[in-house]
Each structure stands twice: as C-alpha cells, then as structure tokens.
Design brief:
The protein is mainly alpha-helical. The protein has 2 helices and no strands.
C-alpha cells in the first residue's frame, strides 16, 4: 500500500476514534448534569413536602451507586478508545517503516 493511502486510512480511522472520544465526553457531561438535576429535584420535593428524609437518603444512595457504575463504564469505554488510538498509531508507524524500508 502506498504511503499516501496509508496516511489517508490512518487519518480517517483516527478521526473516527476522536469522534468516539468526543461522544463519550459529551455523554459524561450530560449524564453528570442529569444526575445533579435529579438529586436537586428530589431534594426540593422532599423539602417542599416536609416528609421524612429517609426515602430521599435511600434514593440519593441509589443514585450515587448508579453514578459510580456510570463513571466506571465510561472509564472503561474511554480506556478502550485510548487503546485503539494507541494501537492505530503503532500500526501506522510500523507500516510507514515497512514502506520506507522497501
């Protein structure tokens, strides 16, 4: 494969991985915002209704566990994208070296 084609393929794949990374970052921001809004809404409702806060505390704990799981899953997905980017870079460099050696 010619160097120009390898570079074009590399750049296309790199852009795709960067788009995936951007999607994950956006998803994380939106998720964190939604979690905070949900906790705020629940807290406001509890304050307005002047009921026992125990259900709120349980709900908050459940949401915090969901938030932790959410962050762990996003971290795994980000790590996978980073590994794919690294592998792509290494493969590209190896292919360039092969081309230069020929």
């Amino acid at each position: 494969m010619k160097e120009e084609q390898m570079t074009a393929d590399y750049q296309r794949k790199r852009r795709t991985l960067e788009e995936d990374e951007d999607i994950l970052k956006s998803t994380q921001r939106k998720g964190e915002q939604l979690i905070q809004e949900t906790l705020s809404d629940i807290y406001r409702i509890v304050q307005q209704s002047a009921v026992d806060s125990e259900p709120f505390d349980r709900a908050r704990q459940a949401i915090m566990q969901i938030e932790n799981d959410y962050h762990e899953e996003l971290s795994r997905a980000k790590k996978q994208v980073y590994l794919q980017q690294e592998e792509l870079e290494q493969d590209y460099r190896k292919d360039l070296q092969k081309t230069d050696g020929e």
